[in-house]
Write a structure and sequence with these properties.
1% strand; two-stranded parallel sheet; 71% helix; mainly alpha
């Protein structure tokens, strides 16, 4: 007992105070734990600080501190008149702002561009907010109704017919093209001894096919001519088209079971009629503004938005076609993707602008901007196809096998099971392609289309604003615009990615 008591230790004085723990929160904690917590991070922090000092500080000084904000001409931005080193010449941007935004679009008609921008924002913002309802209706208005309305707002013009007239004209053009090709084969075979007979027979067969096609579409052409001879060809054609389409929806949908689809179809045609009446499309519409007068931010947004919207369905179709079990579809998809991805965008634009008209019938002309849009859409679609194909390969085969075991068709399995998961996996790659396409729109200036950068370069020729800092100011202004759009797309993609991958959070 005595030994146990003797061996027991009892402290007779207070323990000394320990040092306070290292602060890991707030600005001080951030600096200590992130910037100065190791020799390597200390070195990187010093290098970054020097980089900021020699790049960001001079840029802010040029754009804000030494900038000139008010002036009427180049005299306000000259160093000898200001009395100190001159930075950005913002009066130049103010004077040329209309050219940067609209190009050479007539001043009196620029309200049409502003209205198009306003409609796009009104329809796009609710589409980007996940919690707002009626996404289907909103998407239909944005992707289908807005492009048509924007075309008649920006380009102008009216309608001379509707569905029946358009269908008859398309089929008649096809029949005439077949007949022209057959006659060309007949004329080419007349000068060849052996192969010429085969070409002559083939030409006669093609001409016969063209004649049969013309006979088949003759009733539709006759109806078109009668509609055009009426007092109100647009409204008569619209009413006939609405009746035919609604009846087809009713019959194909199974009668009374398709009542909802019939009502939606009738409401769609009612909306089309309302737009025609408001814009006066049956009376010639708005004055036509040729696309050669378009420029600036207008062309940049038109090319980028149409390229982005068109690249998704084209890319999905090519990606699925490349994985198809049908050899013809698979080989065509592979050849198209590899051919388009193997050449630069400039080559595609030149081909679409200068060589595409050579493959069209002689009486058919396509606007220069439309040709560029076709080239950009096909180019971006080929790149998008490989991005989406990567997402499709990430989906286990068991997903499709399980859907097949449950009796799902290939279309439903791909649309509702495989493709949504694949697109979710490749959101960063898709948005990266969108951002790259938005910046690559500056290449259309090579085919005589003045986008934002093209309008900027054209403004340098004005001697009224010829100063040593004019070019730097213009490029800084356009760079900020490109940064705002690209950074916005990047941040929104992160929001979508976090929302769709909520099941992976830990």
């Amino acid at each position: 007992m005595t030994d146990i008591t003797a061996s027991t230790f009892i402290r007779q004085d207070m323990a000394g105070e320990r040092p306070a723990p290292v602060k890991t929160t707030g600005f001080t904690g951030f600096v200590r734990t992130r910037l100065l917590n190791s020799p390597t991070n200390i070195l990187l922090t010093l290098v970054s600080a020097l980089l900021i000092w020699f790049t960001v500080i001079p840029a802010l000084k040029f754009l804000l501190v030494d900038a000139v904000w008010v002036g009427k001409d180049r005299e306000a931005c000259l160093e000898q008149n200001v009395g100190h080193a001159v930075g950005a010449c913002w009066p130049y941007v103010t004077a040329k702002f209309g050219q940067f935004m609209y190009g050479f679009y007539p001043d009196a008609e620029r309200w049409r561009v502003n209205l198009t921008y306003g409609l796009a924002v009104v329809l796009l913002v609710p589409l980007l907010i996940p919690r707002l309802p009626a996404k289907g209706l909103n998407a239909g208005l944005f992707f289908f109704a807005l492009p048509v309305v924007a075309f008649f707002l920006l380009y102008g013009g009216g309608l001379s017919g509707f569905g029946v007239s358009w269908t008859a004209a398309t089929l008649q053009l096809f029949a005439e093209s077949v007949d022209t090709a057959g006659n060309a084969l007949v004329r080419g075979g007349a000068n060849l001894p052996v192969v010429g007979m085969l070409m002559w027979l083939l030409g006669k067969l093609v001409v016969l096919i063209g004649m049969l096609a013309s006979l088949l579409i003759w009733p539709l052409v006759w109806v078109r001519d009668q509609l055009q001879a009426s007092h109100q060809p647009v409204w008569t054609d619209l009413a006939l088209t609405a009746i035919v389409v609604t009846a087809l929806v009713f019959v194909i949908g199974g009668g009374s079971r398709a009542l909802r689809s019939v009502v939606a179809t009738a409401a769609t045609f009612a909306g089309i009629a309302l737009v025609i009446a408001i814009m006066g499309l049956d009376r010639g519409g708005l004055p036509i503004v040729d696309t050669r007068l378009w420029g600036g931010m207008l062309v940049t947004l038109v090319v980028s938005v149409i390229g982005i919207v068109a690249s998704m369905p084209i890319g999905i179709a090519l990606a699925l076609g490349r994985r198809s079990t049908i050899p013809l579809i698979r080989l065509f998809s592979i050849a198209f993707i590899e051919l388009v991805r193997g050449v630069p965008l400039i080559t595609v634009l030149f081909f679409a602008t200068y060589m595409l008209p050579l493959f069209l019938p002689g009486n058919m002309r396509i606007d220069g901007l439309v040709r560029a849009l076709v080239g950009v859409a096909l180019f971006s679609g080929a790149y998008m196809a490989e991005v989406i194909r990567g997402g499709l390969q990430a989906i286990p085969r068991g997903q499709a096998e399980a859907a097949s075991a449950l009796g799902r068709s290939w279309g439903k399995t791909t649309s509702f099971i495989v493709l949504p998961q694949a697109l979710r996996h490749v959101i960063p790659g898709i948005v990266n392609s969108f951002i790259s396409l938005f910046k690559d729109t500056s290449l259309v200036s090579i085919v005589a289309l003045f986008d934002l950068l093209g309008s900027l370069k054209a403004s340098f020729a004005d001697p009224v604003w010829a100063t040593p800092t004019t070019a730097f100011t213009g490029f800084a202004f356009t760079g900020l615009i490109y940064f705002v759009f690209c950074f916005g797309m990047s941040r929104y993609s992160l929001l979508v990615e976090r929302r769709l991958n909520a099941h992976r959070r830990h």
